[in-house]
Amino acid sequence: MFPLTHTQTLSTSAPPETVWRAFESVKRWREGNPKVARATLSPKGPLAPGSTIEVRATSGSGSADRIERVVAAEPPSRLVLTIDGAEYRATTEYAIATAADGMTDVTVTGTLDARGLSQTVRFLLWRQRLTPILSATMRERAQALIDLAERIALEEKR
What we know:
Layout: E1 4-12, H1 16-24, H2 29-32, E2 36-42, E3 52-57, E4 66-74, E5 78-84, E6 88-98, E7 104-114, H3 117-157
Antiparallel strand pairs: 1-7, 2-3, 3-4, 4-5, 5-6, 6-7
């Protein structure tokens, strides 16, 4: 029943290394996602376990500000981020691989886990609504990173 978990795969013509550069280009995340006003990585440098990414949402976007912690970073194939809230823990895992057709597949798995009895009951009652929200949020964020990767790939060709 819990945690809620959803997996989906998106594809891009950008190679895995370029997709990884998009993940590491945290300051550029807003270019692919209009709901992001600013994103910063701390400490500066490559993504690494223990690093944090602070994402400031645009006003009126319906998306909350968040701090994501890097749990695992295995360039260019895997990134795991968590958001630890008082009432929930959200984990997003990105697996990046070259597909048989030469495209790059980005498989994103999102997990949402309730904290505490009252939040667990709320999640149970809202499960039908939470699952599509989790799916849409994962797709939106992954697609924004893929869009950025494709933009970086074009810049590199020039």
